[in-house]
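URGENT: need a sanity check before tomorrow's submission.

F., can you look over the TonB-dependent receptor record below? I want to be sure the sequence and structure line up before it goes out.
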Amino acid sequence: MKHPVLSHAPGAAAILLFSFSIHAQQAGPAEDAPERIKSLGVVTVTGGQPTSLPTQIPTTIEGVTREEIDVRINATDSEDVLKYLPSLLVRKRYNGDYNHAVLSTRASGTGNSARSAVYADGILLSNYLGNGIANGTNYAPRWGMVSPEEVERVDVMYGPFSAAYPGNSAGAVVDYVTRMPTKLEAHVSAGYSSQPNNLYNTHQTFNSWQTSASLGSKTGDWSWWLSLNHSDNKGQPLTFATATQASRRTGGVSTPVTGYVPSLNTTNQPWYILGTGTQYHSIQDQAKLRLAYDFSPTLRATYTLGWWQNAGHARSQSYLAGPDGQPVYSGNINIQGRTYTLVPATFPLANDAQTHVMHGLSLKNSPRGTFDWEIAASMFDYLKDQQRAPTAALPWAATGGAGTLQDQNGTGWSTLAAKGTWRPGGMQGAHIVDFGIGHDRYKLAIAKSNVTGDWMSGNMNPQSLVSNVGGRTQTTSAWAQDTWRISSQWKTVLGMRWEDWQARDGYTATAASRQSYPGRSESHFSPKAALAYQWSSDTVLKASLGRAVRFPTVGELYGATNGGALSFINDPTLKPEKSWTGELSLEKDLGTGLARATLFHETTLDALYSQLIPNTTTSRVQNVDKMRTTGVELAYNGSNVFKNWGLRGVDMGGSLTYANSKTVADAAYPQAVGKWQPRVPRWRATAWTSYAPDDHWAFTVAARYSGKQFSNLDNSDVNASTYFGASRYFTVDLRVRYQIDRQWSASFGIDNANNYRYWNFHPYPQRTYTASLKWDL
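Structure tokens as predicted:
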């Protein structure tokens, strides 16, 4: 569905941002100063817990606090808090989306989750076992390990400009800081959302429930925090059974059917929508325990235990009805005199069962004098990760029968890091030297076999193997960077990161064969540099440059899959992708808000990209020789922007991004040269306005826009507003929050209030109503 505002959205967003700036300049300074104050490009965070991002580096950092989340955002999952930050998109398809909610940044699409780094309290949530959703297995960040209620703040650093982070930070580094109490506090909340969905022949409402409770305190040298979260989520259908009209044949015995929906695919070829697939009902539980002990005023030990469990059921529904009016799921069917065959995979079923455990331990010494240090370790373990599916066709498979079991037991990753900060001249010295070492390990193990007995409860039959893939990668790193305040107007940061990467123990196997792969290793240096100039007391110029090396993930190297709706061919010889990224920013404190204009550029050699092989259902990751992105980003964040006009309580913000992102060279696939990089839109924008007339009420209107984009390297998917397409969108979100008294608050919201239908391979949610009730001690 198109919307007439789309053609004017980029211009409208630019006018809106300009209007914000004018209002802010007319407003007075001082008492309503913004939360972030710019001085030589340094971000000073006031209020709440500080970010763990390297704020001494003069580069772009955007963020949102717990108070802002409560007022402005209908947040049912932790990734929702990112939705209005500049140039970011999380491909969340429904509440509780645990396997495909990957992150997109300025120059990286939603197929490149390994080009961003997501952390919570310093613990890695990004899943570098693979990239995106290339081989039918999910590699989205483990968002479920953080609930929205425990978020104190979240900050984003754009680009690979800190030597402290791996090459996966090419797009952005996201840092969640969760609550750690200083006194007794308790919180309880309950939320509900409802999505009436109308698409093709689906006309149904999908509802979700969520409850959470948390309790924490600090007594003497001990502080602790316990949070629990339970959600019951029903999402809209995500895949569809289709048949191209060109695949029809004549003759043969077939059943005449009705209920199919004529439509066009991404290349504008006629096809029929026969029914739905992968409509998830997921029940999830999450528990988090954080303990901290202060050995002294400057030495603290912290332990984090996270536990997440999911029971997901993916179901299908046929639109087809035979002459007797009963639904048709299998066999030969007749549509307008032509015959099509429904195979078992046409209407798939799957049952998922996961239990993941996360551990984090750190010891930090922060005397804020000459030398600070920290040692941290983390582990993420797939304690249980199974997917069951039938091999028979519906409707009989819904009650049992033959099937397969895919098991990822033993999969996971671990990290170990030590870092320090040396101030040769003390706190007031001109130099701050940061340095560290680290070691990360990743293990992938995916065994898929036929089961003995019922697919819903049978045991794996090792003598009837379907596929078995796995392997390991590890990276050892060392880094250092020097922040030098040259004068009151100039500051520079110079850094270097060294990474030694190894891949080993790779294998792929089927019932008939087994292939083992030799080990590999590579080492690379990644320099970083940044410079800030204090042009005036309220204006700063910043320039940053950094190299990032993103090594192939173990899933891309070894994670082949066979059969099913989508197959994936691995490539153990893939080269790492190497990016140079730069940005130039002008930031101005306008008294009641901060305005920023940023020019950015990225050139990536040997870009790792997964793409369907033409005319097949098989994907292969390939090295694309060269991709280049140049763009501009405008952003504004203002507080009480109309106070000088006699109207108080109005906060406003927004962003506008233009990205010219194209494939420059690709010897293996020349059709892609000169085409737009997949899933990176040319234009995107956000805008929001919140109004709090008193201490009780807060009203927010927010909008998001994304322009035209493609899913294929050759841009052959010209029809984006259909299944498999990646379409433009314009959505408007509403939120009302009421503070009933000191302890009780309630909110009501509508996401996608204009009910825009848009796609990113799968359909996004349509208009969704949300409501929540909270109690705080």
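My own read: The domain at 4-542+549-776 is CATH 2.40.170.20 (Maltoporin; Chain A). Helices lie at 9-26, 66-72, 554-558. If you see anything odd, call me.
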